[in-house]
Design a protein that fits this description.
The complex is a heterodimer of chains A (395) and B (216). Chain A is α+β, with helices and mostly antiparallel strands and 395 residues long. Chain A has two domains: 179 residues, no CATH class; 180 residues, no CATH class. In chain A, 53% of the residues lie in helices and 15% in strands. Chain A has eleven helices and ten strands. In chain A, strand 3 and strand 4 form a beta hairpin. The radius of gyration of chain A is 34 Å and the shape is elongated. Chain B is globular and about 50 Å long. Chain B starts with a strand and ends with a strand. Classes of the chains: A alpha+beta (395), B alpha/beta (216). The interface between A and B is medium-sized, with 17 and 21 residues.
């Protein structure tokens, strides 16, 4: 086949319109670099955003409530979530699970044992057990138990240790000490009251509240509550991506609010996504033009050698042979272009990884799998389009 | 490989041909493998047209040409290419060499086009020597005389494997001596390949021992 192709080279001149071919190749190269950079930037950003925070869990939890405005002060029912609203939230694609936070409808007081002169009014809340992050075997309650397991917010202990205790000359306490401290809990409504021993079983970063098991809450609300099932005013949702702009938009649209810290990446993400999309868009447009010029170039070659091609076919050259010969003129060109583009992006990625490392941000020094797939897909696309063009104009 | 003609008539010449008798047009004719066939044809009776029909590069006829039991129209492009590379070779009346190639390259093109060449480069040199065109092999086909081009076209047709060789006035520009040499080479090669040929010409001749002679 080789000597035959060498003879074909003398008959079918591909040198014609070399500058056009050069332009098409350059366009293809730039298009590929832009596309690959867009994809790689996306990969890097995701890696930065989710790589280290939430190392062990793929999901995050947000506590959502309605914004309290001056207009609704004093009307607590306006901050309640109805069953339909919960249903709407559950139906959003970015919400994996959602549940009410049930608050207590009874009075609670807590007193520290022994010489710690400590007495306070307080409240309890409960969430479905699947939302609890400090799970252990002590996290259960059934009627008749005198001990209630309680989860405290981490912030609460910090406030006490670094704010209250220091200013009041009280001792700072460790988490372990708190866990061993039996707290006297009195639950009451009117004259009716019960006493329990509160046992701190853990601290949570997730939900800023005093949590008790749902079973206890149901029982106590039943017994000491006002009998009306009050609609809850806070909802906990589980989501895989708290920075999802769609989630943030949903919350805004409905006048809900949540821990702003957790969704602060959302804006950055939106900006980066926009920039990446614009780069990717230009890459695709450029790629289309490169394909167009390639096709026109092939058309030009075939048209300018029409007589020669006819005679070749007349002498017995198979269409497949001509196709293969023509493809062989182009395929090495864009495979090399592809390799150069990939190498360029790989070098950029390596430099970027080093530059980011200086700021203690870790991204992989190697291009991600998405970029490799994109490079292969683009090359296959170019091959496919060229093959089709050759087939179309040869016949 | 058998070639059958069945009531073949060129559409442009239809009225003219139906008024005269012919051994080929509008008849059932079978060319059996390996036979040397001469078709004598006065000018204007469709000699070149017939060769082009047999090679399937013209299609404006009624009737059928059946090759190996199938009409030409049933062969697709790549099957046709395979046949032209391995079973049917041709010497065009207007030769049809590539001007941009040398004489040698024109021959080589046909020799290496198919999967298995019928002869080696040395054998091509021998053929060129026999036809006395060795000295022009490296020249561009454009610069050759018509007689030289005709001999190059003959060699080109012989370097591929074939079962049928179609020739359209193959010696029109050769002197007697060269015609004799070329005919001897063609006959030898056909015998070696166990191939037949169809030769069309204006007059009677004794270049070959023809098995069958037709009047077009």
């Amino acid at each position: 086949m080789r000597p035959f192709f060498q003879l074909l080279k003398k008959i079918i001149q591909t040198g014609i319109g070399k500058s056009r071919l050069l332009m098409a190749t350059a366009g293809l190269g730039i298009a590929m670099v832009l596309l690959l950079i867009a994809i790689q930037a996306h990969t890097n950003f995701n890696q930065l955003l989710y790589g280290r925070q939430n190392q062990n869990e793929s999901a995050d939890f947000l506590v959502v409530n309605k914004k309290i405005t001056n207009a609704m002060m004093g009307q607590s029912d306006k901050s309640m979530f109805t069953a339909e609203e919960l249903q709407t939230i559950k139906q959003q694609s970015f919400v994996e699970a959602a549940g009410y936070i049930t608050s207590s409808q009874f009075k609670v007081t807590a007193a520290a044992p022994g010489e710690l002169q400590f007495y306070t009014d307080m409240f309890f809340e409960s969430v479905p057990d699947s939302f609890i992050d400090v799970k252990n075997e002590e996290w259960k309650w059934q009627e008749g138990d005198g001990v209630i397991p309680i989860i405290l917010p981490n912030d609460f202990l910090n406030l006490y240790n670094f704010g209250f205790a220091l200013s009041q000359d009280l001792p700072q306490v460790s988490q372990e000490t708190v866990k061993n401290l039996p707290v006297k809990i009195t639950v009451s409504r009117g004259l009716l009251s019960s006493q329990f021993t509160g046992h701190i079983v853990g601290f949570s970063d997730r939900i800023s509240s005093f949590l008790v098991p749902a079973a206890f809450m149901d029982w106590a609300n039943n017994r000491y509550g006002n009998g009306k099932a009050a609609a809850p005013s806070r909802i906990v949702i589980k989501t895989s991506d708290p920075a999802n702009p769609a989630l943030v938009k949903f919350l805004d649209d409905h006048g809900y609010t949540t821990n702003q810290d957790k969704i602060k990446y959302s804006k950055t993400k939106l900006i980066v996504q926009t920039i990446v999309s614009v780069i990717g868009f230009f890459g695709i447009v450029l790629l289309l033009f490169a394909l167009l010029v390639f096709s026109m170039f092939i058309q030009l070659i075939i048209a300018s050698c029409k007589k020669e091609i006819q005679l070749l076919v007349m002498l017995g050259t198979a269409p497949a042979q001509l196709r293969r010969y023509l493809l062989r003129q182009f395929v090495p060109l864009y495979v090399v272009t592809g390799i150069v583009a990939v190498l360029l992006v790989a070098v950029l990625q390596w430099v970027a990884a080093r530059a980011l490392a200086a700021h203690e941000m870790v991204v992989s020094p190697w291009p991600g799998i998405g970029m490799w797939i994109a490079a292969v897909v683009v090359l296959l696309l170019v091959y496919f389009v060229n093959n089709r063009t050759i087939r179309k104009y040869l016949d | 490989m058998q070639i059958q003609l069945s009531h073949l008539i060129p559409l442009p010449l239809r009225d003219k041909l139906l008024q005269r008798t012919s051994d080929i047009w509008n008849k059932d004719v079978t060319f059996s493998p390996g036979s040397f066939i001469k078709i004598k044809a006065p000018s204007g009776t469709g000699k070149t047209t017939l060769v082009h029909y047999l090679y399937h590069i013209r299609y404006d006829y009624s009737g059928k040409i059946i090759v190996n039991g199938k009409p030409w129209q049933d062969y697709n492009k790549s099957a046709l290419a395979t046949i032209r590379q391995q079973q049917v070779s041709i010497i065009f009346q207007d030769l049809r060499l590539f001007d941009q190639l040398t004489a040698w390259e024109n021959i080589e093109l046909k020799r290496v086009m198919g999967p298995a060449p019928a002869c080696t480069g040395e054998q091509v040199q021998e053929m060129a020597a026999r036809l006395q065109v060795t000295h022009v092999l490296q020249q561009s086909a454009r610069t050759l005389s018509y007689g030289e081009r005709q001999r190059i076209a003959i060699i080109r047709a012989l370097v591929q494997p074939f079962q049928w060789l179609l020739m359209d006035e193959p010696f029109s520009h050769l002197d007697e001596e060269n015609t004799r040499r070329a005919a001897a080479l063609i006959a030898e090669t056909c015998k070696a390949q166990q191939a037949g040929f169809v030769l069309t010409d204006l007059d009677n001749d004794v270049h070959f021992n023809y098995d069958v002679q037709y009047q077009l």
